[in-house]
Amino acid sequence: MGLGGISLWQLLIVLAIILLLLGPKRLKNLGSEMGNFLKSFRKAVDDKEEDQNQADK
Predict the structure, then answer these.
(1) Using only C-alpha atoms, what is the Rg of the chain?
(2) How far is Cα 50 from Cα 28, in angstroms, rounded to an integer?
(3) Residues 8-23 pLDDT 10s
(4) Which percentage of the chain shows pLDDT scores above 70?
(5) What is the Cα–Cα distance from 8 to 51, expressed in whole angstroms?
(6) What does the pLDDT read at residue 2?
(7) How many domains does the chain have?
(8) Does pLDDT of 37 surpass 90?
(9) Would you say residue 50 lies in a domain?
(10) Which structural domain, as residue segments, surrounds residue 31?
(11) Higher pLDDT, 30 or 37
């Protein structure tokens, strides 16, 4: 049993289908865009917390 009732084989099949539909180049771009999004989101959250900490003082 894997993650939440999904077995390893089912996960591999889903990943293979996604790879076939999107292709490796588009999948790489999608991963890069997600990384950039998470990086900017974390920066925004950190900035917001820093602003709240300065306002509290």
Answers:
(1) 19
(2) 33
(3) 899 899 988 988 888 8
(4) 93
(5) 44
(6) 54
(7) 1
(8) yes
(9) yes
(10) 23-57
(11) 37
